[in-house]
Amino acid sequence: MTEPARILVVGGGYVGMYTALHLQRKLRSGEAEVIVVTPDPYMTYQPFLPEAAAGSISPRHVVVPLRRVLDKCKIVIGEAKSIDHAKRTATVTTLATEEEGTGAVEITYDELVLAPGSVSRTLPVPGLADYGIGFKTVEEAIGLRNHVIEQMDIASATRDPAVRDAALTFVFVGGGYAGVEALGELEDMARYAARYYHNVKPEDMKWILVEATGRILPEVGEEMGKYAIRELRRRNIDVRLDTRLDSCADRVAVLSDGSRFPTRTVVWTAGVKPHPVLAASDLPLNGRGRLAATARLTVEGAEHAWTAGDAAAVPDLSAAQKGQECAPNAQHAVRQAKVLAENVVASLRGEPLKNYEHKYAGSVASLGLHKGVAHVYGRKLKGYPAWLMHRTYHLSRVPTFNRKARVLAEWTLAGLFKREIVSLGSLEHPRAEFELAAGGEPPKTK
């Protein structure tokens, strides 16, 4: 009897979860053991983060519990710090590492699937680390929702015009999906919430989108991108193209065009960069720090190493020009995961591998409730039809029937009842009241 192969999957995002899911379905009993190392016990469906921030979807329904979905896999909640593929080992820190005081653990493997995804790409902007808010995780999305409503409460209560103006000024940096959709949904929510404030009106709020290039939402095409700009400006959203954030120190957003905006809210969505574990491995990287991958989703020049998604530079075989790479988006990641799992199983069984090839279907983007843009299979849609397509597409793609049913139920109920405008910012500091009662200091809010 031979020992079952050990397959180590690093990452629990789109590629990590779907690869492990396909592996547990395709592998025979005792053929291989699948270990998934992930910092969170859930997979986040990021296209729903803007709706979660706006209160259209419960945060619980934006995430998929990995232990339930991957019931035949071993889940390790931890962070891969380095990988020595020559020795087939990964150094991992877990939640118990600090408590045990024994340092990181080493996990050995026979096959490696490296799909840690990406992290936010920041720039050395003064004040960004102190006052900036990200928008990549469900915690950040809910924190931003609470923050926006809290700023409206501050503006309603203060007698200082300068404090009020800063509280009602919201600056979003980055004109990609995350920035535009987050701004669109939150502006919608805040405009609705303003009707319940006796002294805050929608026109009192300033919403500013800062984009370093000359266009937004490049994935939906130039025409739809221009429409999105017109739609945002029609809602009195200040869209600044070819503009950068130079500083946000002292709660003042300074832009490259010389504009200065006192603000308590700077949301940073200006791109992502490869996960640091890639540089801490002995696997080959391309010039932008992503893993050099083949069309079979193997790592170039490294046997028994596989990759896909944001971490991988996968050649796009469907592109008109040779040498192009697949865009690092969810559409490719989900489909790559299926091919990757099939190739891993084929490799274990000595069968031939197949190439990944998928022609990009298009993109959809929401600009708020009942508003959107889409460019799918050559067809361009805008307004309500695009928004409906956005919801339909992502409902079909969110993992598990359980999540699909819950999201659909929430959307249905949202159409029958009024929006929730409650801020639960205290959830971020659950011990604050007890600490204060026990003589401690209250937490500082940003």
Q: What's the number of helices?
A: 14
Coarse shape: globular
Helix share of residues?
A: 25-40%
User: Which range does the strand content fall in?
Assistant: 15-25%
Structural class: alpha/beta
Measured on Cα atoms, how large is the radius of gyration? 23 Å
Lay out the secondary structure:
Layout: E1 5-10, H1 14-26, E2 32-38, E3 42-44, H2 49-54, E4 63-65, H3 66-69, E5 74-84, E6 89-94, H4 97-100, E7 105-108, E8 111-114, E9 118-120, H5 128-131, E10 132-133, H6 138-157, H7 161-167, E11 169-173, H8 177-193, E12 206-210, H9 222-234, E13 237-240, E14 245-247, E15 252-255, E16 260-262, E17 265-268, E18 272-274, H10 276-279, E19 291-292, E20 305-307, E21 312-313, H11 330-348, E22 362-368, E23 371-376, E24 379-382, H12 384-397, H13 401-416, H14 432-437
Parallel strand pairs: 1-2, 1-8, 2-5, 8-20, 10-17, 11-12, 11-17, 12-13, 19-21
Antiparallel strand pairs: 3-4, 5-6, 6-7, 9-18, 14-15, 15-16, 22-23, 23-24
Helix pairs in contact: 1-11, 6-7
